[in-house]
Amino acid sequence: MNALFAVALFCVCVFFGNGKAGALRVRKRVLSAMEEDIRRLAEQMELRPAPLSVLLTQFEPRTEAFWGIFRKKLGGEASVAELWKEAVTEAAQARNGFELLCAEETAILMDFGLGLSNVGLAAQRANATLTCKRLSARVMAVEQELAQKGKLFESLGVLAGLALALLVI
Asked: Which of 79, 115, 116, 168 sits between 20 and 30 A of 149, alpha carbons compared?
C-alpha cells in the first residue's frame, strides 16, 4: 500500500514539474505565433488596403482561437481598439494559452489593438513593426527563462517526487 502511495506521489510531483515547464513552452509558442500573425497581417494591410474585417476573412493565422474571437466581434458598433481589447480578454478566459501571458505581454497586445484604430496605413505599419519587435524581445526572454527554469521545474518535480516517495516507503 505504501509503495502504491509513493508511486502516486512521485507521479503527481513529476506532473506538476512538467506542467510548469510546459506552461513556459506554451507561452513562448503563443507569443511567437502572435508575432508571426501580426507581421503577416501588416503585410496584407500593405499589399491589399481593405477593411480589417475583409482582410481577416482571407487571413489564415497560427493563433486561430484568438483571431476567430476577434473576427466575430468585428461586426459590432464599438471601435476596433475596444473590440481587440475584448477579444484579448476573452481569449485569456478561453484558456487557449493567452491566460499564461504576463501583464507586460498582454499590454503589448493591447497597445497593438489601440494602434489598429489609426486611420493611416503608415501608422498601422509602424504600430505592427513596433509590436513585432516588442513581441520578439519577449519571445527571446521567455526562451531564456525556459532554458533556465524549464529543466529546473522538470528536475524539481522528479526530485521532489523521489524524496516524497522515499519518505513514504
From this structure: 168
In angstroms, what is the C-alpha Rg of the chain?
21
Higher pLDDT, 137 or 169: 137
Cβ(62)–Cβ(33) under 8 Å?
A: yes
Q: What is the DSSP track for the chain?
A: -HHHHHHHHHHHHHHHHHHHHHHHHHHHHHHHHHHHHHHHHHHHHHHS---HHHHHHT---S-HHHHHHHHHHTTSSS-HHHHHHHHHHHHHHTTSSGGGS-HHHHHHHHHHHHHTT-SSHHHHHHHHHHHHHHHHHHHHHHHHHIIIIIHHHHHHHHHHHHHHHHHH-
- pLDDT of 119 higher than 70: no
On the question of pLDDT at 15 being above 70, the answer is yes
Query: Taking Cα atoms as reference points, which of 78, 74, 99 lies closest to residue 88?
Result: 99
Hey, what's the cell of 149?
A: 527554469
Cell numbers representing residue 73 in the block:
466581434
Distances (CA, A) of 86 to 37, 38, 42, 75, 134: 18, 17, 21, 13, 21
HSE, CB side, 13 Å, CA atoms: give it for residue 71: 14
Ramachandran category for residue 95: left, alpha or beta (phi over 0 → left; psi -120 to 50 → alpha): left
* Mean pLDDT over each residue of the chain, to the nearest integer: 84
